[in-house]
Amino acid sequence: MSNGPETPLLDTVDYPRDLHGMDAKQLRQLADELRAETIDAVSMTGGHLGAGLGVVELTVALHHVFNTPADRLIWDVGHQAYPHKILTGRRNQIRTLRQGGGLSGFTKRSESEYDPFGAAHAATSISAALGFAVARDLSGDNNNVIAVIGDGSLSAGMAYEAMNNAGSMDARLIVVLNDNDMSIAPPVGAMSAYLSRLISSRSYRSMRHVMRDLAKKFPRPLETAATRAEEYARGMVTGGTLFEELGFYYVGPIDGHNLDHLLPILKNIRDSDEGGPVLIHVVTKKGGGYPPAESAPDKYHGVGKFDVVTGTLAKSPPGPPSYTSVFAKALIAEARKDDRIVGISAAMPSGTGIDKFAEVFPDRSFDVGIAEQHAVTFAAGLAAEGYKPFCAIYSTFLQRGYDSVVHDVAIQNLPVRFAMDRAGMVGADGVTHQGAYDIAYLGCLPGMVLMAAADEVELMHMVATQAGIDDRPSGLRYPRGGGAGLELPEAGTPLALGKGRILREGAKVAILSYGTRLADALKAADELDKRGLSTTVADARFAKPLDGDLVRRLATDHEVLITIEEGSIGGFAAQVMHFMAHQGLLDHGLKFRPMCQPDIFIDHDTQQKQVELAGLAAPDIVATALAALDRAIVEAPARA
After folding, report:
1. Are strands 302-303 and 47-48 parallel, antiparallel or unpaired?
2. How far apart are alpha carbons 300 and 49 in whole angstroms?
3. 620 three-class SS
4. Known catalytic residue: 230?
5. Is 286 a catalytic residue?
6. How far apart, in whole angstroms, are the C-alpha atoms of residue 520 and residue 509?
7. Which domains does the chain have, with CATH numbers?
8. pLDDT tens-place string over residues 473-487
9. What is the tens place of the pLDDT at every residue in 423-449?
10. Which of 43, 308, 390, 496 sits at a 20 to 30 Å CA gap from 103?
């Protein structure tokens, strides 16, 4: 266990105002100490490491030059904001990152006034920043608005939509492009820094303004040619032609780890009285300053606990394979039998198992970047030509592609197969990544087949089932984490469409589970049986098409019917209720009790604690059954 690094200068910093009087040498020392503190904190809590280390100097420079929180600093995604949190009054909580009751792993408005906008999904920063800038102008204020966006987020169309809009307006807006992976810039160095400092200076921009006014006195063709020539000349030197075409004044590229380059350019931009949006292009190294993270940026993007000195990651205790890896195994097995199967990921190949699929079928694997809407419609095009696309996207990220799901897949009845990882509680990533809504947002679409895996063997069977669905779209949800430890087949066996299964028979209470709450349903049945309440447990397997025969049997043969799902209101229970209402199954005294996530957003914690907070654990099922039967709970059943 580390006692923490020595940070004498950082110890004097409580808030960004403490940076304002520091000189360049002190700021360099502060950056070094801030990097050491970030590494030490994440080594204890786990979390996103590489992205934050890459922006340490940039974070110090921004808070030194600008007057936050009056100047609005908006971090895209927010996983790069750990150093920002340390400098903004949250250092004493930094070792609670992603823990229950602790700091969020992303920016969060309710956490600090220094987080003007919460972010955990990519490419929202420029849109939000433009909103802040226009609100400032409407209010007659003069504060700065700065968005920091990583190059990876530029694969998302929303970033370009925002830049296109901002470029057509005169709102004063600063966008910092943190180029840490794509290397879209030419090499940076002293000459680049000099040119960037020159073109960001007030004198250059004033002269540029004068020359443009002068050019307006030329005939229109000459004016246009002069303006274009200046823009393209700067673009050839700096590489910023694309951004200039979008209406941004481009500065860069500059070394994002060199404070001697960063500070004067940021000050020039801050002090400029020119209007319009500016893009500052900084080049950084993901994991910068920590060799283990520099040498393995993917491995150290998101980490568990690790040893600071060696960089060795703490090993998790051995356990069953993750649902993600089981999905990959199942998809590979199906693809060996059918060369029309392809795998699609939206910038999360390792998170969805598509990376393993790509090792076996590189020509049939596609990572489209942070572009879920494109991923869905791309899959639709493949399906229209007879291929079998498996679109593997986290439940929470598929929300971003919902219009394409409706318009390009469902309406056209194309057999795109959605594999929704991280469905249900996700633990430390918290509310922004909670896969809570997919049952509801897909269940309302005509023709959609919806399945939820109760365990890893069921997941393999459901992948095989999806592979055989050629006449309509389908969705399969499965959770984060490891399975139940069941022995896996070499390949799945297709299930009968729209048919569930009964795992144990009873007479008084029926529990109908959709997805991974099945294990707790069986535990609850054991407890209810001990109390003399004979209990049936069934696994619905499908929300659409619903197993009407199974629901009818459970409703007519039992006094109480409980449905349980790890999702929001409007999901599986709504499908069951609609069916029972139309069949008249609610007209004769059945006590029906739907159990789903409460109407709240559930913050980061362990997955088990989130399940308990949602009231979806085994004791909660027991309590629901007893309350329906008006039976007092003499002793609260112990939580497993």
Report:
1. antiparallel
2. 6
3. helix
4. no
5. yes
6. 15
7. 10-303 (3.40.50.970), 323-477 (3.40.50.970), 501-628 (3.40.50.920)
8. 999 999 999 999 999
9. 999 999 999 999 999 999 999 999 999
10. 308
